[in-house]
Amino acid sequence: MDFFIQQFPKVELHSHLNGSIREDTLKMWHQNANITELIDSILSPETSCEEALSNCFKSFDLIYEATNSLERIKILAMQVLEDYDNDNTIIAEIRTTPRKLEGHSQRDYIDTVVNAFEDYIKQRTKTTPFYPYLILSINRSRLNDANETIELASEYQKKTPFVRGIELSGNPFKGTWKEIVPLMEHAKELDLPITMHIGEKVDDEECVKLIECYPLRVGHGIFLNKKAIELMHEKNIGCEVCLTSNMVSRSIKGYDKHPMMNKSLFQGKVFISCDDRGLFRTSMVNEMKRAIQAYCHNNEQEGKEFMKQLCLDGIQFSFLSSEIKQKLRDYVLGINV
C-alpha cells in the first residue's frame, strides 16, 4: 500500500510557500543555528487551541526572517515545487502573500515566484503531468496591502498561467469580517476565483459572513456552525483539510476527528492538503497515509478508491481551466486501482 500511495497522483490545494521551507534550508538561511529546535519548542507545549494557533504564527515570523530576499524566495519556490513533484503531485496550488522585501515591491515578489515556476517547468524531465500555480494571499494582519494584491492578481491572471486566484489567510484573530468581505467581493468582481481560511476559531457570525462571500473552497473549516455548513452545501463549496496542521494547532484531537471528513456530509468536496509541509514536517504522501489510516481503517482497496476519488475531486475544485481539468481526469481515470 505504501508503494501505491507514493506512486498514485495527488492534488495539493492548500500549501503556503514560506511554511513549506525545507528544514535544511531554514537552518542554512537563519542566523539562529538552533532555529528548528526553537520552533519545536514553540509548537510542542500542551496549550489551548487558541494559544497553539498563535504559536504557529510566531513560527511563521521566524521563517520570514530567513526568507528575506528575492533570491531566497526563488530558491524556496523551486524547492517547494521539487518536493511536490517528488510526491507525484499533479496539481500544486501554492499560496503566498506578496511581501514588500527591502527595496522591492509586491510586483517584484510575484515576478520572482512566477519566474521560479517557469524555470522549474522548463528544466523538468519527468513525463507525468504536473501543473503548479500560484494564488496570492490576503493576509489578515496586513489588510492595507490587500487591494493592491487583488489588482495584481487580476493583472497576472490575464498574462500568465502561473497566477490563478486569491485566498484569505493569516492570523484569524486579526482583522474583522467587516473589513474582509468588501475585499473578497472586489476580487469576485474581477472574476478571480477565491478560497478562504474559515473556521479556524470559534466565531459563528464571522464564519457565516465569510461563507456568504461564496468562495469556491474553504480552508480548514473546523469550527463551523449549522448555518455555515448548510451554506457550503447549498453553494457546493469544497473544503481543504489539513490533518497534521490541525493536530499541531490542537484544532482536532485525532486524525480521525476532522468534522469535514464525515463522508455522508462532505463526500466529493474535501481535499487532503499539507498546509505548511516544512513547518509541520509532512508531505502529500504522509498526509494520504494518515487519511487512509484514519478514514479507511487501513482497508487496502477502500484506501485506493478513496485516494483516487480525492484526486478526482481535487482536480474538479482546482483553479485550472476546464481543458486541463479534463486532461487530468482522463489521466487519473486511466489508472486501475
Descriptive report:
This is Adenosine deaminase, putative. 51% of the residues lie in helices and 14% in strands. The chain has a single domain (2-333), classed as Metal-dependent hydrolases (TIM Barrel). Strand 4, helix 8 and strand 5 (194-198) form a beta-alpha-beta unit. With 337 residues, the protein is of the alpha/beta class. It has helices at residues 2-7, 23-29, 35-43, 49-66, 70-86, 106-123, 146-159, 177-189, 204-211, 226-234, 243-248, 263-266, 284-295, 300-317, 322-333, and strands spanning 10-16, 89-96, 131-139, 163-169, 194-198, 217-220, 238-241, 270-272. Helix 3 (35-43) runs antiparallel to helix 4, helix 5 (70-86) crosses helix 6 and helix 9 (204-211) runs parallel beside helix 10. The chain is built from 15 helices and 8 strands.
CATH architecture: Alpha-Beta Barrel
Mean pLDDT: 94
Strand tally, please? 8
> Helical percent range?
40-55%
CATH H-level homologous superfamily name: Metal-dependent hydrolases
Spans of at least 5 consecutive residues with low confidence: none
> Structural class of the helix and strand makeup?
alpha/beta
Q: In whole angstroms, how far apart are the ends?
A: 11 Å
Q: Report strand order across the widest sheet.
A: 1-2-3-4-5-6-7-8
| Binned strand content | 5-15%
Reading the helices and strands in chain order gives HEHHHHEHEHEHEHEHEHHEHHH
The gyration radius over C-alpha positions equals 19 Å
Instruction: State the CATH topology.
Output: TIM Barrel
Largest sheet: 8 strands, parallel
Level-1 CATH class name: Alpha Beta
Give the count of structural domains: 1
The coarse silhouette is globular
Number of helices: 15
Protein name: Adenosine deaminase, putative
EC number: 3.5.4.4
InterPro entries: A_deaminase_dom (IPR001365), Ado/ade_deaminase (IPR006330), Metal_Hydrolase (IPR032466)
Family: Belongs to the metallo-dependent hydrolases superfamily. Adenosine and AMP deaminases family.
